Amino acid sequence: MSANADALPLARSGAWRLHLGWGIGTLGASLVLNGFSFLVPYFLTTVLGIAAATAAMLLFIAKAWDIVANPLMGVLSDRTSTRFGRRRPYLLLGAVVTSLAFAGVYSLGLTPFAHTLWFVTIALALVGTGYTIFNVPYMAMPAEMLDDYKDRTRLMAWRVFFIGVGTFLAGGLAQRIAELAGGGARGYAVMGAVFGGGIFVFMAAAFFGTAGARFTVRERRSVPLGEQWRTGFANRPFVALLGTKFLQLFGMFTNTATAIFVVRFVIGRENPGEWMLWFVGAAGLMQIATIPLWRRIAFAIEKQRTYILATVIFCLVSLSWLLAGPAEPLWFFTLRAAVKGVAASGLLLMGQSMLPDTIEYDYRRTGLRREGIYSALYSFVEKVAAALAPSILLVVYALVGFQSRSPVQTPEAIEGIKWAAALLPCLYFALSIPCLACYRLTEDILKGTHRA
Predict the structure, then answer these.
(1) Concatenated DSSP letters of 287-298
(2) In this structure, is residue 7 part of a structural domain?
(3) What is the rounded CA–CA span in Å between residue 242 and residue 139?
(4) Are 25 and 116 in contact (CB under 8 A)?
(5) Does 75 map to a domain?
(6) Could you give the number of structural domains in the chain?
(7) From CA 351, how far away is CA 345, in angstroms rounded?
(8) Using an 8 Å Cβ cutoff, are 416 and 400 in contact?
(9) Displacement of CA 320 from its chain's centroid (Å)
(10) Which of 209, 139, 141, 198 is CA-nearest to residue 173?
């Protein structure tokens, strides 16, 4: 492996500092994804007054650009050569673009462009572009920094920790901040500015936190992009993981997007911010607290079986939304969130730690360093799921008669919200299990893989 030799002692002797320095960037990324999946459908429909079906279309169009942007960013980061490495400079650039775009989206209600659909679409697409600039190089770094199969799981434990923190902040405090700032367009603009600043700080922190980390140099051989993609898709563990993550992210983002609608219209809380705070607080706390448990389970029974176990738990807790209603007590609502957090911890830890394993598997098979291609595909399905899952949900809401900006919904719409919250995530997760069953990359297989 080609690497900056001076960084090797730092990566070995100061592993926890490297793990923390890289992992904190996830907090910025989590604020972006959760800030969108929890609130954007609600914001577009109830604040900007865009019809549910139209809002779904805007989210879909905004993500169409990612079909081009993600692979381009992957190739660009693979072919970059600087004294900071191939990936790190893009962490700073992504931090700037993402933070400004995020604040801009939630400020749309204060501008004359709030009902100009093409402008809203561009604003949404800019957030995705900034996230691509940051996340594609960011997710390529673990395969460069670490070789050890178990050490990558330890690194990803930090990522899951910060995902939990970001979920709590974006899923709970964001809506509460918007309400405390007066609600409506002004409240969301204040929230967007606050979280935009946080996104910049934490994404930029990853640049400084990974200073001195090992990195690989760009490939000197010229391999056509088409050939790289063809041999990349011959990586069966990666294809199985990609299919699994795509379907499961649909389930997770649907679950987060439905929560505020269930609290507002099914349970009937006029100011959902307080209950959402309990929801994400319990989920985030249990997600963080059970990281060591899932690590021990994975070391004992391998990652694939652990992943399946977490998937089954998440399916069951999703179905509990069928019990939701105006009489639901806060303790039961919080318990549901806590169990969801336990399952999410296992899902995230396994999915994240498997990615660098599949990248190392590719390097051992082909001798090519193309972490950016793999992280681009991984980031692409993540962003597509983050956009399409709420889009599909909004289409379902439109079909059941949901009325944007209306404080009161019909009984049919309320029932539709509840059934969508329960069944859609469960369906997505059930569909992911056959893909996950095809993933058979173990530690022994990885160590025994050599280039033909």
Answers:
(1) HHHTHHHHHHHH
(2) no
(3) 14
(4) no
(5) yes
(6) 1
(7) 10
(8) yes
(9) 23
(10) 198
Taking the C-alpha atoms of residue 258 and residue 164, their distance in angstroms, rounded to an integer, is 18
Domain region containing 97: 19-215+234-447
Lowest mean pLDDT among 109-113, 228-232, 380-384: 228-232
C-alpha dihedral, 199 to 196 to 74 to 213, nearest 10°: -20
Q: Which two tokens stand for residue 426?
A: 């469960």
Q: Are 177 and 171 in contact (CB under 8 A)?
A: no
> What does the block give as tokens for 99?
């933070």
- What 3-state class would DSSP assign to 265? helix
Check the CA dihedral 51-53-54-60 and report its sign.
Answer: positive
Section 363-381 average pLDDT: 77
Supply the pLDDT for residue 381: 80
The closest alpha carbon to 247, from 438, 385, 396, 61, belongs to: 385
CB atoms within 10 A of CB 8: 13
Does residue 3 lie in a domain region?
A: no
User: How far is 78 from 322, CA to CA, in rounded Å?
Assistant: 47
Length, in residues, of the chain = 452
Is residue 373 assigned to a domain?
yes
pLDDT tens digits along 295-309: 899 989 888 999 999
* Cα 148 to Cα 100, 270, 357, distances in angstroms: 37, 50, 9
CA distance 440 to 237: 7
182: CATH: 1.20.1250.20
Give the up-direction half-sphere exposure of residue 71: CA atoms within 13 A in the CB hemisphere.
9
